[in-house]
């Protein structure tokens, strides 16, 4: 039963239009390594680095801040909430740098801890009520401790106090509208919408989170989404990681997407990042070389600008 719940939660996160977030969630899944000895699942940072280099050539970064579901694969694959939180804190800081959102670092840290707590608590008990959920994440926020230098610690504590005040407001049903650059408010809005009164989401990042949570509560997922067979197989993969039955080896191969430039239409190769791919088109116009390749995970069009 729990395997189906995990799988449906994962699948439902892809029930959106924005391809940038969907690609980042796939990347997040491909970078996971199960460690039976330590009984946790962690991110292969070397692979993540190369995956994001490839991403830069075939996709644009999300234009909104609400990208917490890049964390969903690592959250779902870990069975221990604290070990999951440790990995989440490490990963979100890498994405803050990659997306150049350093100004909002503490908001991302706090929102990530809240989201990790929320998902784990609902998986353990989908029958939790609205106030129980908010009290639980408030307690998590109060007890949160991270190591920072003195100057950063002051800023972090101020952000944490503000977050606790916002949670208190939502417990009292004093809510706000969805807003740009308001990670914690938007996450709390998702919870409010699900349990109290549904509203239209501001962007696909928020919608992805909402559908993930709803699938945990309903134990259902929309199977009529693009590339469902692959997404479903990745959801099953997550459940196997939770049991440490993959025994995946770390990524030790360097790779450069510019190596694709030498390929011709019809060529088939095994790429270290995309696995088996076939070149389906190659054209040059407006000083940009476009190479489209097809793999099990979907179709990618790489854009190489002429220097």
Record keyword descriptors for this entry.
single chain; 307 residues; alpha+beta; four-stranded antiparallel β-sheet; globular
Structural commentary:
- There is one protein chain.
- This protein has helices at about 1-10, 20-30, 45-60, 70-75, 80-100, 105-125, 130-145, 150-170, 185-195, 205-220, 230-240; strands spanning about 30-35, 40-45, 270, 275-285, 290-295, 300-305.
- With about 300 residues, the chain is α+β, with helices and mostly antiparallel strands.
- β3 and β4 (about 275-285) form a beta hairpin.
- α1 crosses α11 (about 230-240), α5 (about 80-100) runs antiparallel to α6 (about 105-125) and α9 packs parallel to α10.
- It is globular.
Quick structural overview:
The protein is an alpha+beta fold. The protein has eleven helices and six strands. The longest helix is centred in the middle third of the chain and has 22 residues, at 150-171.
* Count of DSSP-assigned helices: 11
Q: Could you tell me the mean pLDDT?
A: 95
Unreliable stretches: none
- Total strands: the figure is 6
Structural class: alpha+beta
Rg, Cα atoms, Å:
20 Å
In what order do the strands lie side by side in the largest sheet? 3-4-5-6
Distance between the termini: 54 Å
How is the biggest beta sheet arranged?
4 strands, antiparallel
Percent in helix: 40-55%
Share of β-strand residues: 5-15%
The gross shape turns out to be globular
Order of helices and strands: HHEEHHHHHHHHHEEEE
Itemize the secondary structure elements and their pairings.
Elements: H1 2-12, H2 19-30, E1 32-35, E2 40-43, H3 45-58, H4 72-77, H5 81-98, H6 105-124, H7 130-143, H8 150-171, H9 183-195, H10 204-218, H11 228-242, E3 268-271, E4 275-285, E5 288-295, E6 298-305
Antiparallel strand pairs: 1-2, 3-4, 4-5, 5-6
Helix pairs in contact: 1-10, 1-11, 2-3, 5-6, 6-7, 7-8, 8-9, 9-10
